[in-house]
Design brief:
Strand content: 25-35%
Radius of gyration: 19 Å
Helix content: 10-25%
Distance between the termini: 23 Å
Structural class: alpha+beta
Oligomer: single chain
Number of strands: 16
Order of helices and strands: EEHEEHHEEHEHEEEEHEEEEHE
């Protein structure tokens, strides 16, 4: 199905196989790509993109951190995303917005400040094999030997392709031990995040998550904290010791496509409940929100049509 998808590329649409750059382009060879992964859902009013303005604002921040220049303004980028979903006649799925340098460059410095933009929209259930997810099944996790990138080495809040080598090798490390997902500690030894996910713990009914500073300012992380407070669940953001992973009543990851990912096992510890009661409350609330059934959060949805 991917071959039939249309891709937005610098103001026009091309077929999926034509959305290419040269292998010696700066963004391919040096990892100088910024991106956003965004979800969209089928609602009673038609397809709608989840927190699109927040995602585009973060793309703009990534560009600013890395001295890059986006070719479109905020509203034009939002409209281009919606147009890409509409052009592909999709009602639900995942969007990837990519800012990149297509030009050949041997130097470590990019050839210019201005980026090209490509936008992809797909329905993983139709287009991508092996990307299924079961909330009831959840996942297993281990503490990776590799630490999260230190914020004094690179701007970790920039959603840049080069930064994700860190998460890739962390996940490979735990998969060698028969586990599925990685939990990364920061360079000070506190819990940071997953390979590509935020992490949450539940202890004595409170929802705990690492504070910003050493982790990505995840849109899903923000959403879960806001929804938890709306539900009356007490939240805490701070430095969390890894020992908490072995005493917490619940642990879960959070990312754009799946929102709440229960962890049923951490290293050799089988979790007492996965999904646990707090995870279920958050999962149920988010399902209502993304489908437009909760009027309190309808402003999070950007209509495609």
């Amino acid at each position: 199905m991917l071959e039939e998808r249309w891709v937005y590329k610098n103001g026009s649409f091309v077929k999926w196989p034509e959305a290419t750059v040269h292998m010696m382009s700066h963004s391919f060879a040096r990892g100088s790509t910024i991106f956003e992964v965004i979800s969209f859902y089928d609602t009673a009013s038609g397809p709608a993109v989840f927190r699109l303005h927040d995602h585009i604002a973060r793309l703009e921040k990534s560009a600013a951190y890395l001295n890059m220049e986006l070719p479109l303004g905020h509203e034009a980028l939002c409209r281009a995303v919606a147009d890409t979903v509409h052009r592909n006649r999709l009602s639900k799925g995942v969007i990837k917005v990519v800012g990149y340098y297509p030009q050949f460059a041997l130097d470590i410095q990019p050839p210019q400040k201005r980026l090209d933009i490509a936008i992809f929209a797909m329905d993983p259930s139709l287009d991508v094999e092996g990307l299924g997810f079961s909330f009831e099944k959840g996942t297993t996790a281990g503490i990776a030997c590799w630490r999260k990138l230190d914020p004094e080495t690179v701007p970790i809040e920039a959603k840049a392709a080069a930064n994700y080598l860190n998460g890739m090798i962390a996940r490979l490390d735990v998969q060698k031990r028969g586990l599925e997902d990685a939990i990364m500690l920061d360079t000070q030894g506190f819990i940071a995040e997953g390979a590509t996910e935020s992490i949450f713990l539940v202890e004595d009914g409170r929802l705990l998550t690492p504070c910003l500073g050493t982790v990505l300012d995840s849109i899903t992380r923000r959403s879960i904290l806001q929804v938890a407070r709306h539900l009356g669940i007490e939240t805490f953001e701070g430095r969390l010791k890894p020992e908490l992973l072995f005493t917490a009543a619940e642990v879960f990851f959070a990312n754009t496509p799946f929102k709440v990912i229960p962890v049923r096992r951490i290293e050799d510890r089988e979790m007492p409940a996965a999904p646990g009661p707090v995870q279920r409350r958050l999962w149920d609330a988010l399902q209502k929100i993304v489908t437009g059934a909760d009027p309190a959060f309808v402003h999070w949805l950007y209509p495609v049509n």
